[in-house]
């Protein structure tokens, strides 16, 4: 264990000496807390990450080529029957789990607390996002007699509130034995000058992006827990899509039939300039190309049927075998820099993990059936647009 002098030297070495003065003014209990936190920070890694903010982020020079997709609507009835049976069996055997990634900060939505606790103006009394997700997952019980295991990834910032929220609402009628919360990793946020910031007695941190799901599943022993439960397939999705459809035997069955370890759902890009990431191959491996990375020529390029070649938008709905999750969890994903509330935040993205697998299935689904994200306070991808899609689909009067 390092003593106080060592901590001071460390802070000085990494240009964080302003924290020493702050610590000196703290109560001894506060000092203990922040020192405990400091001991866990990888200062060398933070110095590297800060350096990366000063280098113009190079676009990766990977060779970007299209990836095939299968349109769910166009699967013929004979095959549909066969794959549904395969998928159904996985659910009925209790080999299926879902992971909700709810560790984001919801900065754009500007909600205080977990995004899943956000209440939408739907139906007579309104509905919380987590409530809608619970209702969606409970359909599995009606259809196949089995509730999937539900793992919810939180962040240190919202973990307590999320757990309290579920308790307060009696888990929205979900069997609480089948719910497990786990927290994702976090990293200090940095000012433009590379300084860490102390807030409420601790160094201000931010969750390490939705790519942190892999390390979190490993470190929090969820992979182990899943193995013990004989879970084979895991559907990972973002908390903020209220139309997400994880109970999808076609999707599960098709992935297995195609002998894939990973599959993602996509929706057709609405128009060439839509600001979304699309599925592709990067140097022959599955991945995503972000809107700004895609040259204009490729953005508008169409096939002989007049469809965009890079036209399958990411809706953060991924199905992975447990083996694939374990494999990716042993890799170091690249960090991307985001600016949130004037501080640098370092995040990895879930799809950056896909390149560690040889191939993937992309299954295109209907936007109006499976995609209603809640990102912004108003305008596009807001509570209002999501409410419209939800009410249209479920015929809410
Ligand atoms: P977004 O990139 O939309 O981020 O996350 P966000 O934090 O919710 O919102 P902003 O950018 O601050 O406005 C996409 C999905 O990934 C999850 C989010 O909860 C959301 O479901 N996520 C994101 C995490 O679970 N952890 C993270 O560190 C980041």
Describe it for me?
- This protein is α/β, with parallel strands linked by helices and 397 residues long.
- Helix content is 35%, strand content 21%.
- It has a domain at 76-265 and 316-394: Spore Coat Polysaccharide Biosynthesis Protein SpsA, Chain A, CATH 3.90.550.10.
- It has 14 helices and 19 strands.
- Strand 4 and strand 5 (127-128) form a beta hairpin.
- Helix 8 (212-219) crosses helix 12.
- Uridine 5'-triphosphate is lined by residues 101-109, 115, 153, 184, 207-210, 212, 238-240, 316, 347, 375.
**Largest sheet descriptor:** 8 strands, mixed
| Uncertain stretches of 5 or more adjacent residues | none
Classify the helix fraction into a percent range.
Answer: 25-40%
What is the multimeric organization of the chains shown?
single chain
The gyration radius over C-alpha positions equals: 22 Å
Strand order of the largest sheet: 2-19-13-16-12-3-6-7
User: How many strand elements?
Assistant: 19
How far apart the termini lie comes to 62 Å
**Second rung of CATH, namely the architecture of the domain at 76-265 and 316-394:** Alpha-Beta Complex
Overall body shape: globular
Which kinds of small molecule does this entry bind, naming each only once? uridine 5'-triphosphate
β-strand percent reads 15-25%
Mean pLDDT across all amino acids: 96
């Amino acid at each position: 264990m390092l003593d106080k002098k060592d901590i001071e030297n460390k802070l000085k070495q990494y240009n964080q000496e302003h924290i020493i003065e702050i610590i000196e003014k703290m109560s001894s209990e506060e000092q203990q807390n922040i020192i405990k936190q400091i001991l866990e920070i990888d200062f060398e890694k933070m110095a590297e990450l800060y350096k990366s903010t000063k280098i113009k982020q190079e676009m990766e020079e990977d060779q970007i080529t299209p990836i095939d997709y299968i349109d769910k609507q166009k699967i013929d009835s004979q095959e549909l029957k066969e794959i549904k049976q395969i998928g159904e069996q996985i659910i009925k055997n209790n080999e299926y789990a879902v992971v909700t990634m709810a560790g984001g900060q919801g900065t754009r939505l500007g909600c205080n607390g977990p995004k899943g606790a956000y209440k939408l103006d739907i139906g007579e009394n309104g509905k919380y996002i987590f409530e809608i997700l619970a209702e969606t997952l409970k359909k599995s019980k009606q259809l196949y007699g089995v509730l999937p295991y539900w793992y919810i990834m939180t962040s240190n910032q919202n973990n307590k509130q999320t757990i309290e929220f579920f308790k307060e609402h009696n888990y929205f009628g979900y069997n609480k034995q089948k719910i497990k919360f786990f927290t994702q990793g976090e990293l200090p946020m940095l000012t433009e000058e590379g300084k860490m910031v102390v807030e409420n007695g601790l160094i201000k941190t931010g969750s390490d992006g939705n790519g942190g799901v892999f390390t979190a599943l490993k470190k929090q022993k969820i992979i182990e827990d899943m193995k013990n439960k004989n879970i084979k397939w895991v559907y990972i999705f973002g908390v903020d899509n209220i139309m997400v459809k994880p109970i999808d035997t076609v999707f599960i069955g098709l992935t297995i039939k195609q002998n894939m370890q990973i599959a993602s759902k996509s929706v057709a890009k609405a128009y060439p300039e839509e600001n979304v990431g699309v599925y592709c191959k990067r140097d022959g491996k599955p991945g995503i190309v972000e809107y700004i990375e895609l040259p204009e020529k490729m953005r508008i390029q169409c096939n002989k049927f007049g469809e965009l070649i890079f036209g399958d938008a990411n809706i953060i709905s991924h199905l992975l075998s447990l083996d694939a999750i374990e494999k990716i969890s042993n890799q170091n994903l690249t960090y991307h820099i985001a600016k949130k509330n004037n501080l640098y935040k370092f995040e990895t993205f879930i799809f950056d993990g896909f390149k560690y697998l040889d191939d993937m299935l992309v299954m295109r689904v209907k936007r109006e059936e499976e995609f209603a994200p809640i990102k912004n306070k108003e305008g596009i991808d807001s509570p209002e647009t999501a409410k419209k899609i939800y009410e249209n689909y479920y015929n809410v009067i």
